[in-house]
């Protein structure tokens, strides 16, 4: 797939909703040389837009401030609010697409959740920044310009939720944060970006192939099942798993070593969790690759689910949504991971 587009006439510019949630892109520090130790989420959406006058050549903007937080503090309540607002806006004939400005820390989780629950084919694009708005060479303004450019392009329709960052366009399912400081912090390590955006041009080389948005049974919930993440490592114990069993959580995602392997002590505890009615999903703490379904041990024998190429954080998102949608047993939950 090769799709290029740019607005052809200022008389017929698309109307794009920009929803701000805070994050580094809306951060500020006292010193322009400071790229750490700033306060996130303090710059309002109007100031973000004013810093990018070139937006006027791309789209007519409708702006809303949904939240003003550091994305490390994001919770399911904000996910619900954001998803409902995006769906409502996309039902309006005068809205052609949506851009969400977000903090980088949990952007990949929000993007994947929206990719699964939104019920629209209109473009929805997340973007962020690694440097606060007050910094020298702040990356937020260009990322915002590019995100609006992608949302305004015809080629982005039907692609699910996208992430525009550092001139790359990523699928929400694939993208992860890979650096604590670099402006190219977001990558799709396993299969690469969908395309690129630069100087008003959008070039999508391929499409997302797994079902998303209108093709899924998922929706945000008024109450979310408790799903927690544990990590396996040298010398790992069963203490955390025992505590989660006692708390009667609905699911546990384990960030395993390598191909989702689990320390023997923790694995024994996780098997007991399955016996207690808790769904256990094996993911990997490794930065790329996939966790193969293992028919002998531990999956079929112990009742575990394999997360495939999803990292532990996205695996938690899918587990929460699948349990809410009624994928209640291990076979059904594995089917969800194999499908979405």
TrEMBL record:
Gene3D superfamilies, A to Z: 3.40.50.40, L-asparaginase, N-terminal domain
Classification via SMART domains: Asparaginase
UniProt GO molecular function: asparaginase activity
Keywords for this protein: Hydrolase
UniProt record similarity statement: Belongs to the asparaginase 1 family.
Binding site for substrate: 71, 104-105
Domain of life: Bacteria
Name recorded for this polypeptide: Asparaginase
Active site (UniProt): 24 (o-isoaspartyl threonine intermediate), 24, 104
Statement: the UniProt record of this protein carries the keyword Hydrolase: yes
PROSITE patterns named among the record's database cross-references: ASN_GLN_ASE_1, ASN_GLN_ASE_2, ASN_GLN_ASE_3
The Asparaginase/glutaminase C-terminal domain, residue ranges: 227-337
Limits of the L-asparaginase N-terminal domain: 15-209
Database matches in Pfam families: Asparaginase (PF00710), Asparaginase_C (PF17763)
GO biological process: asparagine metabolic process
